[in-house]
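To: structure subgroup
Subject: Chain for Friday's discussion

All,

I'm putting the inputs and outputs inline so they're searchable in the archive.
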Amino acid sequence: MCIRDRERLTADEAEPPVLLHGEYHQGTVLAADRAPWLAIAPRPLVGERAYDLAWLVRDRLDTLLASPGAAAGARRRIGKLAESLEVDADRLRGWTLFRAVEAGLHALATGAPAPGELLLEFAGMI
C-alpha cells in the first residue's frame, strides 16, 4: 500500500516542484534576529511541499504515541498542517505514511529497532 501511495503521489504532482529543506522538523527551525524564523541544517532537494511537511507531522513522535488518542492526534496534526499551510491533506497523509515507513524500515535494517518500531507504529495509525 505504501509503495502504491508513493507511485500515485509521484505520478500526479499537485503543484509545481519547489526547493525543499529535506529534513524539516522542530529541531531545524530556530528563532532568529534577522528574520522571525531560521531553518538550519538543510538537505536540499526538489519536490512538493507536502513531502517536506511529512517530516514535521511525525515530529516529537515519542510524545505523540505516548498520549491518549494518539491516532486521532496524528490525524489532527495532518489536518491542521494541511489547512494552515494550504496543502492537500490527502497528499500530506500519503507522504507522511511513505516517509514513516521508509524511515522505520531503514532504522530496522541498520540495527535501530526502537525507533524503527516507533515509526512503523505511527505509520499504522495514519
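Points worth raising on Friday:
The radius of gyration is 15 Å.
Residues 2-125 form one domain.

D.
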